[in-house]
Structure formats: structure tokens, C-alpha cells
């Protein structure tokens, strides 16, 4: 004879129907899953969007941050007006939109005397042009004019009057195999290298740097004195030896440090 289900069995049957995965159902779980965003979160998002839009408008659409003035610093030979003309900073443009890289490239291209230039935004209305000019260490004379050469061997300007204290470069290597082997540019680099490694007190008196070959560079000083430097190699050693040699023979007229291990001086 069949027996009626107990109360516990009825309860288990109801539990198995309440959840498809065997667990108890959670009233309202499905409704919570699709709940709308809280009003506070929505208001925060709208506020942030308004702030961003306001900032963009202030930087690009308003008259608050526009270029009204340009200031140049660091010039020695060039004038601020020359630099500002080459820079062509767009007056009236939004300060944030100024292409500083383009200004730097354009100014250096138009004014080779400029070694570097930094374009700086000066909020709220200014642009600063911070210039570093090339400095000549040698001069090449041709046709009564002088081409300036910097410490990197760059020919950057031609002037009618030689700057004071800058020695002339004389390339006498026409008949030397060095000219064919190394080329004029390499010999120029060696002359610049030798000039840059002279002791400071000697460099101040240098008037001519004469290149006869790759390994025969002579520096002519004031008072008719000469220094046979040799090649551009071992420059720091040669500088120390030359300083000691000049102290040991202050009245000598010729100093030879081409072989720094066997220096010599002569004349008086």
C-alpha cells in the first residue's frame, strides 16, 4: 500500500523546484542585476564632462590664453628682432596650440648661427625664445670675407669683419697626400680638434692654425712664436707637455710637442 509523502519530503521537493542549479532561489536577484545607475554617479559624470569642456574652451576658444607677446633671450650677435622674425610665432593664436617644435626647426633652418633654441610657453599670454648661438673657434678667409667655424667643425656664417681673438685656419695641404686621403673636411676637423685642446693661455694667443698635412698642424702665436702640434691625436697629453715646456723655456720661440714623449723647444 502506498504511503503519503512526509512533510520533510514535500519540503525537499519544493526546494528542488525553486532553483534550476540546485541552489535556493534569491528573490529580487534578477531585478538588482539590471538596476539603473545611481543618480549621484550620473551627476558626477555630467559634472566632470562639464569641467573638461570648460577647460578646452578656456584653452582654445576663449581670449584668456592667447599669444600676445614674444620675448627673446641669449642672443650675442643676432638681434632679438632677427630671431623673432625667423620664429614667426603666431600672435593671437591659442597658447596651447602653438607648435613649439616647428618654431624651433624653422628658426634653426633660417638662422644657422643658432646652435639651439628652446621655445617656452609663458602663461597666460607669452612665448619665450631661449637662444644659444654658435661660437667661432676658427675662421676661413676667402675673398676678403671670413667664414666662421664652430667647435663641431660647422661652417655657420660668413662675415665681413673677423671676430677678435679667433685664429685663422690656413690649409696648406694642397701638395700633401693627406688631402687626397682624408679630404678637406677631415683636415678641418683635425684643426678644430687641435684648437680646442690647446691650453687656455696658449689659445688666447693663437693667431693662425696652419695645416700642412694630417699629422702636421702648427699653431702660430703672438710674438712670432710657434707650436708644432703634429696630428690631432693625444691632445690632452700634448697640452700638459706644452704648458710645462713653456714654463721651462719662457723665452723660446718654437715649441715642438708633436711627439709628446720627446718635446723640444728652440729659439729665443
Structure characterization notes:
The structure is a single chain. The N and C termini lie far apart (144 Å). It is built from 9 helices and 12 strands. The chain has 268 residues and is of the alpha/beta class. The longest helix is centred in the first third of the chain and has 23 residues, at 39-61. A 6-stranded mixed β-sheet has the order 7-8-9-10-11-12. Strands 1-3-2 form a 3-stranded mixed β-sheet.
Summary tags:
single chain, 268 residues, alpha/beta, six-stranded mixed sheet, three-stranded mixed sheet, 9 helices, elongated
What is the N-to-C succession of helices and strands? HHHEHHEEEEEEHHHEEEHEE
User: What is the strand content?
Assistant: 15-25%
Structural class: alpha/beta
Instruction: Give the helix tally.
Output: 9
Q: What is the strand tally?
A: 12
Average of the residue pLDDT scores: 85
The biggest sheet, with number of strands, parallel, antiparallel or mixed sense and barrel status, is: 6 strands, mixed
Question: Which geometry do the CA atoms define?
Answer: elongated
- The oligomeric state of the chains shown is single chain
Strand order of the largest sheet: 7-8-9-10-11-12
Query: What is the CA–CA distance across the termini?
Result: 144 Å
Q: What is the radius of gyration?
A: 39 Å
Query: Helix proportion of residues, in percent?
Result: 25-40%
Low-confidence stretches: 6-23
Would you summarize the structure shown here?
This protein is 36% helix and 25% strand. The protein is of the alpha/beta class and 268 residues long. Strands 7-8-9-10-11-12 form a 6-stranded mixed sheet.
Amino acid at each position: 500500500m502506498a504511503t503519503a509523502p512526509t512533510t520533510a519530503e514535500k519540503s525537499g521537493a519544493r526546494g528542488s523546484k525553486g532553483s534550476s542549479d540546485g541552489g535556493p532561489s534569491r528573490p529580487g536577484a534578477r531585478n538588482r542585476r539590471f538596476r539603473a545607475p545611481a543618480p549621484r554617479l550620473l551627476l558626477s559624470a555630467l559634472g566632470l564632462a562639464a569641467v573638461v569642456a570648460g577647460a578646452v574652451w578656456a584653452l582654445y576658444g576663449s581670449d584668456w590664453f592667447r599669444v600676445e607677446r614674444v620675448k627673446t633671450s641669449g642672443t650675442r650677435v643676432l638681434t632679438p628682432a632677427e630671431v623673432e622674425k625667423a620664429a614667426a610665432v603666431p600672435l593671437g593664436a591659442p597658447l596651447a596650440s602653438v607648435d613649439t617644435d616647428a618654431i624651433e626647426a624653422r628658426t634653426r633652418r633660417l638662422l644657422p648661427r643658432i646652435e639651439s633654441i628652446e621655445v617656452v610657453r609663458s602663461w597666460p599670454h607669452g612665448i619665450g625664445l631661449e637662444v644659444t648661438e654658435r661660437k667661432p673657434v676658427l675662421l676661413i678667409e676667402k675673398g676678403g670675407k671670413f667664414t666662421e667655424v664652430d667647435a663641431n667643425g660647422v661652417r655657420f656664417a660668413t662675415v665681413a669683419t673677423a671676430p677678435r681673438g679667433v685664429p685663422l685656419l690656413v690649409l696648406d695641404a694642397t701638395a700633401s697626400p693627406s688631402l687626397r686621403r682624408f679630404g678637406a673636411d677631415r683636415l678641418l676637423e683635425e684643426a678644430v680638434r687641435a684648437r680646442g685642446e690647446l691650453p687656455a693661455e696658449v689659445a688666447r694667443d693663437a693667431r693662425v692654425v696652419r695645416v700642412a698635412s694630417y699629422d702636421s698642424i702648427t699653431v702660430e702665436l703672438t710674438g712670432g712664436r710657434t707650436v708644432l702640434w703634429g696630428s690631432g691625436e693625444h691632445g690632452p697629453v700634448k697640452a700638459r707637455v706644452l704648458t710645462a715646456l713653456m714654463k721651462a723655456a719662457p723665452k723660446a720661440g718654437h715649441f715642438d710637442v708633436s711627439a709628446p714623449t720627446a718635446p723640444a723647444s728652440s729659439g729665443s
